[in-house]
Amino acid sequence: MIVRILLALLVAMLLLVVLLYFQLNGSMGRIDALGDYEGRPADTPGENWLLVGSDSRKGLSAAERKKFATGRAVGQRTDTMMLLHIPAGDGKPTLVSLPRDSYVPIPGQGRNKLNAAYSGGGGPKLLVRTVESVTGIRIDRYMEIGFAGFVGIVDSVGGVELCVSQAIKDPKAGINLKKGCQELDGGTALGYVRTRATVRADLDRVKRQRQFFSAVIQKATSPGVLFNPFTSIPLAFSAAESVSVDEGAGITDLSGLAFAMKAGPVTTTVPVASTPTLPGVGSVVQWDRARALQLFGALAKDQPVPQSALEK
Predict the structure, then answer these.
(1) Domain span at residue 136?
(2) What 8-state DSSP symbol labels residue 198?
(3) Which pLDDT value is given to residue 7?
């Protein structure tokens, strides 16, 4: 009798896991982001993700937009772009920030800010093509999240602890943070990764974005969250409903990304040469092309990035 009861419980648990898997997989948004075109980079070892945070206000109420100081901008632009390389072997992942104002050639549009590949009508597909063309790296997976999803995930894990290197007061981002390590809820964390109210503006911001991404992954995969069904299940549904991925990705791919990141990635910004202001374009970020080629060349070969190519 006891054996039958245990077997029945085991079968019920397996059915529940299968049901949760299909529900979570079905909750994820899908985006036609990856497409074949002439001259696309060949497959390279490891797995390459393009991680995009958009400034979409979709899902935020008027009260939340006011509370989080997101403004009322319509449409959708890219606030965050990061290239994550997960090696095929035992090496550490590499997380590279691609500043939104990077001045790069956009296929069919000439040179412009990287963000223009997305916001100018090309959307995710042109953004992926642009990143592939300037890095020489084939993007295997694409993930995108908007403001509302960002807030929801942070709140699902009970907030994240971040060490703020300097006091930041920015009404435009809705934050007034003191220097030091502190627990941030979803709205405050959103302001922290959006603000440009520091000396190096966007170049400081991309560092904070990587800091946040690593912190939320560490929190989400911690035993206190992962093995507590009252936190892990709501988190799983919040994450699935908050992100959109390429049409070939699923919940297992997101799990693989999270656990790869848990190992502690090498983090850097693409090497920068200068930040000039160009007529008709505005302030841009120009890459140090030689060092950038070193960086992306190493990733394409699934090799450690040389120190000379990392952010100084």
Answers:
(1) 2-309
(2) S
(3) 63
Cα separation, 275 vs 284, whole angstroms: 5
Domain total of the chain:
1
Contact by Cβ (8 Å): 68, 174 = yes
Which of 47, 95, 100 has the alpha carbon at shortest distance from 268? 95
pTM of the model: 0.83
Give helix 251-262 / helix 229-242 axis angle, nearest 10°.
110
Q: Residue 195: which residues within 8 A CB-CB, separation 6 or more?
A: 168, 170, 172, 173, 175, 205, 208
CATH number at residue 22: 3.40.630.190
Specify which residues 98 forms β-bridges with: none
Residue 62 has what pLDDT?
Answer: 61
**Residues 275, 196: Cα–Cα separation, whole Å:** 15
The whole-angstrom separation of Cα 113 and Cα 189 is 26
Amino acid identity at 27: S
Low-confidence ranges of the chain (pLDDT < 70): 1, 3-27, 55-77, 147-148, 312
DSSP of 53-86: EE---TT--HHHHHHTT-----S--EEEEEEEEE
Write down the pLDDT at residue 223: 84
Say what the pLDDT of residue 159 is: 86
Residue of 161, 166, 164 lying closest to 184 (CA atoms): 161
Q: What does the pLDDT read at residue 166?
A: 87
With CA atoms as reference, report the closest residue to 291 among 307, 306, 311, 271. Answer: 271
